[in-house]
Amino acid sequence: MDSSQPFEHVHADMVTTKASTTNQSETPCIRTRSLGLTIRGLTLLNDISIQVTTPGITMILGPNGAGKSLLIKCLHGLITPTRGRFEIGLHQGVDLIPQAMVFQKPVLLRRSVIDNLQFSDRHSHQREALELALEAVRLLEKKDQPATQLSGGEQQRLSLARALITQPKLLFLDEPTASLDPASVLIIEQLINQASHEGVKSVFISHDIGQAKRLASDVIFLNRGQVTEHTDAATFFTNPQSREAKAYLNGEIVL
Amino acid sequence: MLDSAFLDAFRLIATVNADLYEILWLSVQVSITALLVSVVLGFPLGTTLAISDFRGKNLCTTVLNALMGLPPVVVGLLVYLALSRSGPFGVLELLYTPTAMVIAQVVLITPIIAALTYQVIDDLHQEYRELFLSLDIHLAKAIIAYLWDARYSLITTVLAGFGRAISEVGAVMIVGGNIDHLTRVMTTAIALETSKGELAIALALGVVLLTLALLVNGLVTAVRTRARRYGYN
Description:
Helix content of chain B: over 70%
Largest interface: A-B, 22 and 15 residues
CATH architecture of the domain at 12-107 and 169-187 and 198-249 in chain A: 3-Layer(aba) Sandwich
Shape of chain B: globular
Order of helices and strands of chain A: HEEEEHEEHHHEHEHEEHH
Oligomer: heterodimer
Structural class of chain A: alpha/beta
Structural class of chain B: mainly alpha
Strand content of chain A: 15-25%
Number of helices of chain B: 10
Strand order of the largest sheet of chain A: 6-7-8-4-9-10
Number of domains of chain B: 1
Shape of chain A: globular
CATH topology of the domain at 12-107 and 169-187 and 198-249 in chain A: Rossmann fold
Distance between the termini of chain A: 32 Å
């Protein structure tokens, strides 16, 4: 497709298209072609062309304002890109991929912890299953408490449980552990790793390089709305190619 | 004279004066009926406006907010013209009936309920919009969630509407006519009895009206306190 062509505007469900059948894996595949986003004359994402076909956790790294959150919001269908196109699909012929997203700032309904979980449950799980999901995020004993009264870490754990109860194939995580206590970080990382082992593809934004090293299978580095590097995690952390990624990993200020 | 008027007023209340309680009962009936109709109209209107995006939305919200300040006598006049014999709804013969008073109050209160609902739901929509999109929540479920999660604020809105309805005088005076045993409510009775110099009845009704206003405000405070306690404000 000619990258200069205007974006084919389609709903999030509709952009989820069947991908190539050459790869027989069940891992969701994300392809973007010259994806761009301009708002009020400001180019926030520019010419993003990536192909994510590996299982596991794809980490998106980059300085603040690089466009990381905007990129996953575009991929999740919350924002419509102004240029380019993207495809998300399974290789073995499932057109629609259940997706979920965990936001940086937890958004919880003004009701109890278990009612928050039940609200997002598309599969009408039994109460016992919901309680098991709460047990997994160590919130079972708080199931009847107002969700808005939980601590920051607990709120984010509930957000993750709420995303996972929808049984996604693709999970977007926008800095889910930012400013959380180590215990909450550990629980969240364990759950994401477990989901990954069960076949859930995760796209994870983080500023924590240690966490990226622990979790990532591949890394997309974004700077000023552009992808400067997309490589497997081992290569990225030992031998980054772009000047910006090198500077970022060295703890220098990337402008 | 004033002392005896106060004493007589409290005597009327304490002895459960039939005329006084008839007026009180009609006032409450008219206001609650108008309130229910206004809630049925105002909740969906405010919610729809808050969660939909269309050209002219700002104009709609501006008009709705402006309608909150509708002068009651003007509303009374317009409803009077609509219900009078030569008006478009004259054939219904509703003028000078409690139904006409309900209609006038509905016209007055619905914009208040709708505008306050809009403000409450709009705030919630800004917070929940991306989450609902992400969870692929369909419209009907989203609307129910908005109304439920805004329940404490909406209760306050309903109580504000009731306060406005029960204390309104201009519109109900024009369309109800303040007819004894038929359309006389507390506010119109107070105006009439004061003009006649019957201060005892006017004061008794005033005390009851103030008590109602205090009760409504007490309920608003209780609802807000409860909402704060649960972190739902």
